[in-house]
Specification:
Elements lengths: L3 H8 L4 H10 L5 H12 L5 E4 L2 E4 L1
Antiparallel strand pairs: 1-2
């Protein structure tokens, strides 16, 4: 069985079980739950633009 957790584990030189443990430590039960939570919270972040060393928040 090849899951997204296995794919992330391969990219980060860890194991799928490490990814699952991280997700649980961050308050989700499984990797797909973590992905959804991350996507929803990412939308809430302000957009930061750096122009000529000045930071603007949108």
């Amino acid at each position: 069985m090849y899951s997204p957790a296995h794919e992330l584990a391969k990219l980060t030189y860890t194991s799928a079980s490490t990814i699952v443990r991280l997700c649980k430590k961050l308050g989700t039960q499984r990797y797909p739950d973590f992905q959804l939570k991350l996507a929803l919270e990412y939308k809430l972040l302000p957009i930061i633009t750096v122009i000529d060393h000045e930071i603007e928040f949108h």
